[in-house]
Amino acid sequence: MFLFMKKMMNKLSLVALLAIGILSAFAVNFYEKSPDNPATEHSQLSKRQLDLLNAPPLATGSKIDKIVVRKADREMDVFYQGNFLKTYPISLGKNPIGHKEFEGDMKTPEGVYAINDRNANSGYHKNLGISYPNEADIAYAKAHGKLAGGAIKIHGIKNGLGDIIGANHLLKDWTHGCIAVTDPEIDELFVAVVEDAMIEILP
């Protein structure tokens, strides 16, 4: 019996090591640097990013009715009744330059939209839905014989990887067009952003 239990424990240990290895390999592959990606020119987070990550959380009960995304800066500002509250560092779609036009182009939209949905059971921790595509987006894509795409969100890290990846997601633009933040940040935003809050996404 002792030998049987010992063999079983060895097998379980091997399975655990394999699982850790797979997750580690995923994390390494996730952050593989790309010379064409403006967000991956540095091997570590910038002082600006670290300062933003270490900023105090929003005060309890805070509300957000306007979000401004500055794509070129990889930053997102939040406001309530015209008053600035906080800036979050962000990651964008894998093809970050320019407005999203078609399904699968991996671009993050540009323009004025609304937060029109929220999901506490997202595959990426939690998410806030953005009202892309609007009528103009749909018409433009249709005129080119294509679909405009959709399901653009502000979301956290893929479930199960939040503690492994964390703020290092900022080293690379990695989404399919969404705006990514850390899990604690989307927790904060999820509670504070009011229904139909405006979101302006700048180049």
Number of domains: 2
Topology, number of strands: 8
User: Between the first and last Cα atoms, what is the distance in angstroms?
Assistant: 66 Å
Portion in strands: 25-35%
- Which second-level CATH architecture of the largest domain applies? Beta Barrel
Strand-and-helix sequence, N→C? HHEEEEEHEHEHE
Radius of gyration: 20 Å
Helix content: 25-40%
Which blocks of ≥5 consecutive residues have pLDDT under 50?
A: 1-9, 15-43
Which CATH top level class of the largest domain fits? Mainly Beta
The DSSP helix count reads: 5
What can be said about the biggest beta sheet? 8 strands, mixed
Biggest sheet strand order reads 3-2-1-8-4-5-6-7
Tell me about this structure:
The chain is an alpha+beta fold. The protein folds into two domains: 1-43; 47-201, L,D-transpeptidase catalytic domain-like (Beta Barrel), CATH 2.40.440.10. Helices cover 29% and strands 26% of the residues. The chain contains five helices and eight strands, in the order ααβββββαβαβαβ. It has helices spanning 2-30, 47-53, 135-143, 162-165, 183-192; strands spanning 64-70, 75-80, 83-89, 111-122, 125-130, 153-155, 179-180, 193-202. The chain has an eight-stranded mixed β-sheet. The longest helix has 29 residues, at 2-30. The radius of gyration is 20 Å and the shape is globular. One of its GO terms (molecular function) is transferase activity. The active site is at 155 (proton donor/acceptor), 178 (nucleophile). Residues 65-202 form the L,D-TPase catalytic domain. Belongs to the YkuD family.
